[in-house]
Automatic annotation (TrEMBL), chains A, B:
This is Gamma-glutamyl phosphate reductase. The gene is proA. It comes from Magnetospirillum molischianum DSM 120. Pfam families: Aldedh. Catalyzes the NADPH-dependent reduction of L-glutamate 5-phosphate into L-glutamate 5-semialdehyde and phosphate. The product spontaneously undergoes cyclization to form 1-pyrroline-5-carboxylate. GO terms for molecular function: glutamate-5-semialdehyde dehydrogenase activity; NADP binding. Keywords: Amino-acid biosynthesis, Cytoplasm, NADP, Oxidoreductase, Proline biosynthesis.
Length: 421, 421
């Protein structure tokens, strides 16, 4: 059975590689037209997609899945429309392919340019959110990459219905059905089989909870764009404007607690702890946030629980925050580089030199000065859309948009030059 | 014993990570001064380096190593001087760190910039060429990366003597000895131990023969900048200038046959085979090149041996070439994408449209029009120096110079922005 799955995946990979080569040469307007037609097909098929989703939700409810899972799984009419309009937005983005990233001429007359080209084939492994099907396929198509999608078993019927609509749209623009393929089984062995396709898949994007991502990291021989967790910090410096700090910290923690850019640990400069710690902690408590702190934070209010070493390493993804007093910006940087996940960190300060030290020395994909960590998002960065956020240092870091789904090649134009020596 | 080696490597990794964080913040002029002082130290220590090298060469000769290996191992006074001047050249390159790769401001006033920062820690695994010690250490230092070097056993004494000189130079500029470290044993288990340091090493660069690189590819859980082979092609199109083609093909194959940019397969458009095949093949034969060809090539001269399927997949690294007639540019692209190693390919043609098709459709790191494949080299590209050439698509592709030894971070500057909704 597992051999059969591997054979199926190998064949999908082989077809994706060939389709990717064709897609790389497909003109901008045809790729954009395919996206628009897919958006239209999703609107046309909205009822069928909603019906498939109802079946998924019924099955998930019967299995006793959590309310949060059911919510992620559920496609409302607004969410279906949002998939369609998302594809249209991707169609309006400027073409990431063919961009001349650098261009120079050598003394011998050779002209060298570094030109953006697709990565080739992208694999996306995701869980319960069925909308990832459309979002990921759209970003890959825009960037000239073939893709292989593998959704979670609980959203399989929904994803299949969305895929059917996408396929119709893409086919109307004359694209090969091999350009966007979906793994046709919910068998878990298919994930392992997909991770072995290093000849055919150039990069894997795992989208889901920590256990899914950890499994992919463990098993994959294919490069990944991923983050395991977003253990983000906000540091309130001695030179912070307290009112700004209160506003930003509350937003960074509480706007949405379940996203990877939510602040999980608040660090406060010892120099201003006597004045700043209490209002910041009391704001969070008043907003319904559980606070776990060091001795200083506990002294603010009896509701503050003691934090242990484990709290500094925990991504709560919930209305819980850990709070610690540190010795200035160096103490904050040291805590962040030691305990953090290299995702997103913010400093609140009016002191430019201190801010620059923090921005330089935090070894994270995104560092912010006087702004909420919840801005860690491709849309908020103006990238139009993102396929995920990477904490890796190789190739893509931070939000991964259509430009990051490209690599480059060197194109050298000469007039018969030979190399001397 | 292997546990002890792993413990040693872990400790080296831990120190390298810390040293890398410091080096990332070390000003340009101090990094450049360290390079100049290391160059001076190599000159001062030239006699000691030469003596250590003599011991390596004596041992290698006694072991019966090939003449080519002995040549790669031998350090002449000119080669020692070349290491020193190479470090000085790296010192003159512009600083790759802190470059603002992109910068934009969002409607909400957030300023976002993408800034070049070091990758962190680079591991270099190499074989008999002792000069890699200085070249690699210099490129890593320039780009703010700590490095861990692991040379081959046959060049161990030479590499250790070079390393001693480098260490003195770097220390004179006040750099930590942990910034550039060398694995202190020739035990092969150290390579495996190094490849397990994924917490401490960000990228591994294997430099050496195919068997070394293949072993590293097989075992490494750390990303690599590498190429397994350079199976480069030159395609002579129907619209080629025959004189240019003769000159370029001869250079592409014969200038140096042992480098990765040497052409291994010559493809000729069927439309001009009757006129172009014979002069091209006869030139190669006259230059002492062994020619293995398809039926058409064999018909040119009795010295042309038959090529089999294996020849289209062989990187000879020698004065041997395979020759094949193909059906125009599409046939050439198809052959190259099927049999090639995605390294470097050239087309000779006077037809712009045909050239652009070739440049677009060959899925290789470097594609050239009317120039020799032997230009596949960081120095020839004007990058100053390279740590290697990558056929991977992730992060670095083609020559890997100091800019490719960098990653980036997003720096976001605000004035108290919080994310709505």
């Amino acid at each position: 059975m597992s051999d059969e799955i591997q054979a199926t995946l190998n064949e999908m990979g082989r077809r994706a590689r060939a389709a990717g080569r064709t897609l790389a040469q497909t003109p901008t307007d045809r790729r954009n037209r395919a996206l628009s037609l897919a958006a239209a097909a999703i609107r046309t098929d909205a009822a069928a997609i909603a019906e498939a989703n109802r079946e998924d939700v019924t099955a998930a409810t019967a299995k006793g899945l959590s309310a949060a899972m059911i919510d992620r799984l559920t496609l409302t009419p607004a969410r279906i429309e949002s998939m369609a309009s998302g594809l249209e937005v991707i169609a309006t983005l400027s073409d990431p392919l063919g961009r001349v990233l650098a261009d120079w001429t050598r003394p011998n007359g050779l002209n060298i340019s570094r030109v953006a080209v697709p990565l080739g084939v992208i694999g996306i492994i995701y869980e319960s959110r069925p909308n990832v099907t459309a979002d990921a396929a759209g970003l890959c198509l825009k960037s000239g990459n073939a893709c292989i999608l593998r959704g979670g078993s609980e959203s399989f019927r929904s994803a299949r219905a969305i895929m059917a609509a996408l396929t119709k749209g893409f086919a109307s623009a004359g694209l090969s059905p091999d350009a966007v393929q979906m793994v046709p089984t919910t068998d878990r062995a298919a994930v392992g089989a997909m991770l072995r396709l290093s000849d055919y898949i150039d990069v894997i994007v795992p989208r889901g909870g920590k256990s899914l991502v950890a499994r992919v990291v463990e098993e994959s021989r294919i490069p990944l764009f991923h983050h395991l967790e977003g253990l983000c910090h906000t540091y309130v410096d001695a030179a912070a404007d307290l009112e700004m700090a209160r506003k930003v910290v509350l937003n960074a923690k509480m706007r949405r607690t379940g996203i990877c850019g939510a602040t999980e640990t608040l660090l406060i400069d010892r120099a201003v702890a006597p004045t700043h710690l209490a209002p910041l902690v009391l704001d969070l408590l008043a907003a319904g946030c559980e606070v776990r702190g060091d001795a200083a934070a506990q002294a603010v209010d009896p509701r503050v629980a003691p934090a242990d070493e484990n709290d500094w390493r925990t991504e709560y993804l919930d209305a819980i925050i850990s709070v610690k007093v540190v010795d200035g910006v160096d103490g904050a940087i040291d805590h962040i580089n030691t305990h953090g996940s290299h995702h997103t960190e913010a400093i609140i300060t009016e002191n430019t030199a201190t801010a620059e030290t923090f921005l330089n020395c935090c070894d994270s994909a995104i560092v912010l000065w006087n702004a909420s960590t919840q801005f860690a998002d491709g849309g908020e960065f103006g990238m139009g859309a993102e396929i995920g956020i990477s904490t890796g240092k190789m190739h893509a870091r931070g939000p991964v948009g259509v430009e990051q789904l490209c690599t480059f090649k060197y194109v050298v134009r000469g007039s018969g030059q030979t190399r001397p020596g």
